[in-house]
Amino acid sequence: AQSVTQPDIHITVSEGASLELRCNYSYGATPYLFWYVQSPGQGLQLLLKYFSGDTLVQGIKGFEAEFKRSQSSFNLRKPSVHWSDAAEYFCAVGALALTGGGNKLTFGTGTQLKVEL
Amino acid sequence: EAGVTQSPTHLIKTRGQQATLRCSPISGHTSVYWYQQALGLGLQFLLWYDEGEERNRGNFPPRFSGRQFPNYSSELNVNALELEDSALYLCASSSSRTSGSTDTQYFGPGTRLTVL
Q1: Is the CB of B55 less than 8 angstroms away from the CB of A97?
Q2: Which residues, other chains included, contact B109 with Cβ-Cβ below 8 Å and sequence gap of 6+?
Q3: Is A11 within 8 Å of A113 (Cβ atoms)?
Q4: Which of A19, A35, A98, B96 has CB 3.0 to 4.6 Å from A47, enough for a Cys bridge?
Q5: For B60-64, which contacts have Cβ atoms below 8 Å and span 24 or more sequence positions?
Q6: Cβ distance A79 to A49 under 8 Å?
């Protein structure tokens, strides 16, 4: 069974500082990995995704993530955080339907980002 | 292009009642997924519909059910509501997975269900 671990429940950074949110996954085959962001009371917005190919993935709002198979990680980074980035961030792993796991996303527990001005 | 829409935004019910939540996918998408985001439990997969059929189901009791209509919109029904059913219910859509290709799920804003 697939699983996702986000070890940091809360992270606080100063505006303009760099950011790295950690994500570790467990999956038997090549994973399909996603980062989503959720503002209070809102749905999930897709930041970026990794299916195959280049292990450094660029997303929206200046975010990027790097897939490291040897470490089973897919950490999210941003070089300079803006106050509007304050939100909850979710890492997720997806399964290809034909593997029999069904087409569902398994989410981590989320990391709440606070940005200090 | 319109995104995934959900209705109602908020729903208040009492224990034992039934709740019906609705979702309209992005135009051209045939797969609809339902997730529950309950306080302290995180995001959990509920149901997946594709081409009008239920394809996969999460670890939820049978009183959680749904259907997908010919226009690919979907309905989630929760019978015999319990207090712990209070949560944000998120719907997502994607292109059909029956082809075996990879795809991405796009989420709606959610329906906040409160059970009193």
Answers
A1: yes
A2: A42, A43, B5, B6, B9
A3: yes
A4: A35
A5: B60/B36
A6: no
Average pLDDT (A66-89) is 96
Closest-CA distance of chain A to residue B79, Å: 23
What are the residues of chain B with a beta carbon less than 8 Å away from any beta carbon of chain A? Answer: 4, 6, 31, 33, 35, 42-45, 48, 50, 55-56, 58, 90, 92, 94, 97-98, 100, 102, 104-110, 112
- pLDDT tens, position by position, B12-36: 999 999 999 999 999 989 889 999 9
Is residue A89 predicted with pLDDT exceeding 90? yes
Task: List Cα–Cα distances, A17 to A7, A14, A57, B5, B104, in angstroms.
Answer: 20, 6, 20, 35, 30
The verdict on A44 touching B (C-beta cutoff 8 Å) is: yes
Q: Do B107 and A103 touch (CB under 8 A)?
A: no
